[in-house]
Every structure is written in C-alpha cells, then in structure tokens.
Amino acid sequence: MKKQIRFTPETWEQLLEQKKALKKPINEIVSEKIVNTLSTNKNMVFGKCVIDVPMISAKILDLSDEADRLLKKAQHTTIAVRTAQWKSPFVSVEEIILQII
User: Fold this and answer.
1) What is the DSSP code string of 26-91?
2) What is the pLDDT of residues 65-93, one digit of tens each?
3) List of residues 6+ apart from 72 with CB closer than 8 A
4) Sign of the C-alpha dihedral, residues 85, 47, 79, 62?
5) Is-above-0.90 flag for pTM?
6) Across-strand partners of 5?
7) Dihedrals φ, ψ of 97, to 5°?
8) How far apart are CA 74 and CA 77, in angstroms?
9) CB-based contacts of 74: which residues, under 8 Å, 6+ apart?
10) More confident site: 84 or 97
11) Which residues are within 8 A (CB) of 21 and not within 5 positions of it... i.e. 6 or more apart?
12) What are the domain boundaries of the chain?
C-alpha cells in the first residue's frame, strides 16, 4: 500500500501563512517538507509512497538541491502534473505528484 503525504487546501493556506511569516518562497518551504519527510523516514525513500505537493510551478527544478537529491535517491521516481481541484485565493495552483515506487 502506498503511503501518502497530502498537501490539502488547508495545508496550502498554512504554507502561505508560513511564507508570509518566514519571507520564504513556497518552493523553499515545500522543499524543506520533502527533505524532512524523506530524510527522517527511511521507509519513505526505500518503500512505496506518493507525495502530492501543490506548487506555484510544476517544475521539479524549483525544488531545493537537497530535496531533488533525496527524490533521485529513491530508485524510481515518476513525476506527473495535474490541475488541482481547488484554487488558492492568492495564486492559481497546480499539483505536482512525486510518486516513488
């Protein structure tokens, strides 16, 4: 069974609040969350999981080097982009789905 980390609309609002508080771009905050998740839970790297991350840009290159490195460390990473079913009041959001199998 695949594990999932979902960034829900509520989580997205929290990210936007963090962005204001920390004065960091969303992709940095999301990158940190990916790094924290993948580096603290080995099963997330070597097991099966799905990470759904709404991002302003769907480009994997917008993630930090560390987040990118950890995702590549997972043996097979599939990246698919889909339109989110909801929109943030501040930005239009696309979901990037990083599927590690």
Assistant:
1) HHHHHHHHHHHHHHH-HHHHHS-EEEEEEESS--GGGS-HHHHHHHHHSS-EEEEEEE-SS--SSS
2) 777 777 666 544 444 433 333 344 444 44
3) none
4) positive
5) no
6) 51
7) -110, 115
8) 7
9) 38, 45, 46, 100
10) 97
11) none
12) 3-100
